[in-house]
Design goal:
By secondary structure, the chain is an alpha+beta fold. The protein has 3 helices and 3 strands; from the N terminus they run E-H-E-E-H-H. It has one domain (1-103): 2-Layer Sandwich (Alpha-Beta Plaits), CATH 3.30.70. A 3-stranded antiparallel β-sheet has the order 1-3-2, covered by helices on one side. The radius of gyration is 22 Å and the shape is elongated. The model has no long low-confidence stretch (mean pLDDT 79).
Length: 110
Amino acid sequence: MHKLYSPDNDAELALIKSLLDGEGIHYFVHNDHFGTLRVGPRIELLNTKTIMVAETQFDRAKEIIDDFLTNIQEPSKKAPSKYTLRDKIRMVIEAMLFGWFVPGNRWNRE
């Protein structure tokens, strides 16, 4: 089996799996269920999910994946910030004044 693609998230993985199933291409997802148990950064061979395909079906599967990735609409412009400058300033002030609402061990209680 050859490595075909490592999706960025589970939604992309589900879409790719459905495309490969629809075309009748047999595949194996390395770390399919175990990869979701590890939180934190993606580390190759530890928690990265990788789609593996047989050598005989690799070219067709690669064509399907490339077509899928080129058809994903990427934003043409940088998305505008959903927070205005006023909102950001308010959040900073709230964090400074009401920081004690944030969970955590800020003071040592002995």
